[in-house]
Amino acid sequence: VREHHFEDAYLQSLLGLKTRMTQTKEELEKTAWHEAGHALVSLLTGHEVPRVSILPRERTLGVSFSKPKHESFANNNREELLEKVMVGLGGFCAERSKYGQVTPGAFDDLRRANKLISDMVNLYGMGDGILTGITSDYITSDAMKVKFDQCMMDMLQQCVKSTDRLLEENKDALEALALGLLEKETLFDREISAIVS
Q1: Under 8 Å CB-to-CB from 150, ≥6 apart: which residues?
Q2: Rounded Cα–Cα distance for residues 123 and 163 (Å)
Q3: pLDDT tens digits, one per residue of 14-53
Q4: What is the pTM of this model?
Q5: CA–CA separation, 126 and 159 (whole Å)
Q6: Closest to 180 in 3D by CA, of 38, 42, 36
Q7: With 0-12 CB in 10 A as exposed, 13-18 as middle and 19+ as buried, what is 15?
């Protein structure tokens, strides 16, 4: 039993079995740009990226692994959680930057990004302005509920803008990562760092 056996078992439990799905060149290219977006935003926000791949599995067309800064989620501060949102939006923003539109493949990323923003504002007291330090647990007035909703929308839109800006400022690295994925299908940490640098 070798290390790669454990790695295969881990990936299978997390993402499902490898599939024989045949993708067109255009579909593979979109997946490569999407995953390159996740990986690049991860690196640029100070996260380690041990692997990124466009090999399809049962539950995904590709995957970018990002090592969290803290082992415990509870140790993340507001800025670090906003970075997590940006990493989640990396694929969506990269697709939009390259093609001017997005695919439904970004659905789960957007769902998780929206959920984290909602939790930050409603549960963790990490809202902006007057909502700093306030949770929505005991809010009953409609006016305050509107403020919570607006705060979530504003924070999410700011994350989208920040992610767009990060990718635009590093578009050569984004393209290089996407092309590297199309060539090798899976890139590991040293290859990723070499391409981006």
Answers
A1: none
A2: 24
A3: 555 566 667 788 888 999 999 999 999 999 999 989 889 8
A4: 0.85
A5: 14
A6: 36
A7: middle
- Work out the pLDDT band at 70, boundaries 50, 70, 90: confident
CA angle 129, 132, 133 (to 5 degrees): 160
Q: What angle do CA 82, 70, 93 make, to 5 degrees?
A: 30
Core vs surface per residue 24-35: b (16+ CB within 10 A) or e = eeebbbbbbbbb
pLDDT of 10-24, one tens digit each? 555 555 556 666 778
Helices vs strands, H then E, count in the chain: 7, 3
SS3 186: strand
- Start-to-end CA span in the chain (Å): 35
> What is the rounded distance in angstroms from the CA atom of residue 189 to the CA atom of residue 44?
14
Q: Is 174 exposed, middle or buried (0-12, 13-18, 19+ CB in 10 A)?
A: buried
Q: Identify which of 160, 151, 152, 155 has the alpha carbon closest to the alpha carbon of residue 87.
A: 160
Residues noted as catalytic: 35
Q: Is 123 helix (H, G, I), strand (E, B) or coil?
A: coil
pLDDT tens, residue by residue, 137-192: 888 899 999 999 999 999 999 999 999 999 999 999 999 999 999 999 889 989 99
